[in-house]
Design goal:
Blueprint (H helix, E strand, L loop, with lengths): L2 H28 L1 H8 L1 H10 L14 H17 L1 H12 L5 H37 L12 H18 L2 H10 L5 H6 L1 H15 L5 H32 L15
Helix pairs in contact: 1-4, 1-5, 3-6, 4-7, 5-6, 6-7, 6-11, 8-11, 10-11
């Protein structure tokens, strides 16, 4: 393909991905009430536990705050819902330049990325109520806690996306193994430093200061690390079986030819 053809192909893929994002964002706009109810459920539950006199609720500062928040949440939901489409378009743009084997491997990676990302977002969503409960638990009885809506939803959306992105960690490890940068024996030999780094990453990535949320992110990442090691070991074993014997011959040894 010429440079012009590449640019036109990129434009076409970008247009399809943008159209999918817009359509899913429109769906998110109409599903706003459901999304809002689920994301604000932790605050509503705590307010209910504290009784009718509780002063824990969201605060919208300004006339346009509610509209802006609905728009941003719709785009956020549309980004997650359209993830399979824009990931597929990214793969489809790259795939013409790959060999048959590389196409098969890249398709496997795309097939793994989508469920891992969505599964991580779901795990973050299920963890969210406990994180909000811990943070709001520091509010003294009788005191008001009226977080600004935009700040609360920024915290919530970041919290969920951090889990989604973090669950792509094993894909990166397997990709490094496929290209020969990270053999399986190196992964298992360095599992202790890897666990420490995962815990440090979880402590930095999670926007809450409590150790509970940090462990909820670190634990599945540690499990996924060993899953990635198992896959890398299978790849290394298959690679060693396909390795020709003449590669192991000494440089001073005469060739059988």
């Amino acid at each position: 393909m010429s440079l012009g053809d590449h640019l036109r192909e990129f434009r076409r893929r970008l247009f399809i991905a943008a159209a999918a994002l817009i359509v899913c964002s429109v769906i998110g706009w109409y599903l706003f009430d459901t999304i809002y109810e689920h994301l604000t459920a932790p605050i509503a539950n705590i307010a209910e536990q504290r009784g009718e006199g509780s002063l824990i609720d969201l605060n919208y500062a300004g006339l346009t705050a509610a509209f802006s928040q609905r728009l941003s949440l719709s785009i956020w939901a549309g980004t997650i819902m359209s993830a399979p489409m824009w990931l597929w378009q990214a793969w489809a743009f790259v795939v013409p330049g790959l060999t048959r084997k590389e196409k098969r491997l890249s398709l496997m990676f795309v097939a793994a990325i989508v469920p891992l990302f969505l599964g991580g977002c779901w795990f973050g969503y299920t963890t969210l109520p406990k994180a909000v409960e811990i943070l709001l638990g520091f509010t003294p009885e009788g005191a008001a806690n009226l977080p600004e809506a935009s700040l609360y939803f920024a915290f919530v959306t970041r919290f969920i996306l951090v889990f989604g992105i973090a669950f792509l960690f094993p894909v990166v490890l397997v990709a490094l193994n496929v290209v020969g940068v990270l053999p399986a024996h190196v992964m298992i030999k360095g599992w202790r430093p890897a666990v420490v780094l995962i815990v440090v990453f979880a402590a930095i990535a999670t926007p809450t200061p409590d150790p509970y949320t940090m462990l909820l992110l670190a634990t599945p990442l540690i499990v996924l690390y060993f899953v990635a090691y198992g896959i890398a070991r299978l790849i290394d074993r298959r690679r060693s079986q396909d390795r020709p014997d003449w590669l192991d011959a000494s440089d001073e040894e005469a060739s059988p030819l």
